[in-house]
Amino acid sequence: MLTLAFDTATDVATSALVDEGNVLGERVSVPRSLLADVDALLRDAGVAPFDLDALVVGTGPGSFTSTRIGLAAARGLVLALGLPVAGVSTLDALAASRDGAYPVIDARRGEVFVRGPRTAHPDDLELEEGTVCVGSGAVRYRLALERQGAVVPTDDDPAHLPHARWHVALAGELGAVDDLLPIYVRAPDAKVRSVA
Q: pLDDT for 137-191, tens place per residue?
């Protein structure tokens, strides 16, 4: 099954083209470059969009805007190409990068997204000694996590990225695009003002 996967929930977008478990190509960039990355993956593999059998997308948590970019792109591709789709938590994809990894995504405002999913202050996490923390939150709050006995790989370690190839491996049952829901955890920063 030829599957396109991508995740834009964090500051780094990942995308992959996977065929029956074999990674045909991967890209790492920024969320706004997602469609260019998808085009490059397909061209490099010598396949057309209509050759795809499925799509898997990261559902967050992460940046509200970045998560929406990925879900909107997924919705458009799924509707245009008639593909089944599955959503995978960005936290789960990070955890898949290394056995026993504890995913920590930067949630801004001095907080991180962790499994639950929930937000927490990095100093309030109850981590076992030697827990390997991965993700943008682990990099940003390295000192707080290490004070608790956690191990944080070097900043450039690939385990800190929610690689899209893991999304394919973790995807459950494929379904309709209307079943695809984002994981926001908290309300967006933007507020609607009422006009009197």
A: 999 999 999 999 999 999 999 999 999 999 999 999 999 999 899 999 876 666 7
Q: How far is CA 87 from CA 4, 60, 151, 164, 179, in A?
A: 12, 9, 29, 11, 9
Give the pairing type, strands 112-114 and 105-106: antiparallel
Counting the structural domains of the chain, the total is 2
Q: Which of 13, 15, 73, 12 is nearest to 3 (CA)?
A: 15
Q: Contact, 3 vs 129, CB < 8 A?
A: no
> The domain that contains 171 carries what CATH number?
3.30.420.40
Task: Determine the structural domain holding residue 119 and report its residue range.
Answer: 98-158
Are 105 and 141 in the same domain? Answer: yes
Coil, strand or helix at 101? coil
Tens digits of per-residue pLDDT, 99-149?
999 999 999 999 999 999 999 999 999 999 999 999 999 999 999 999 999
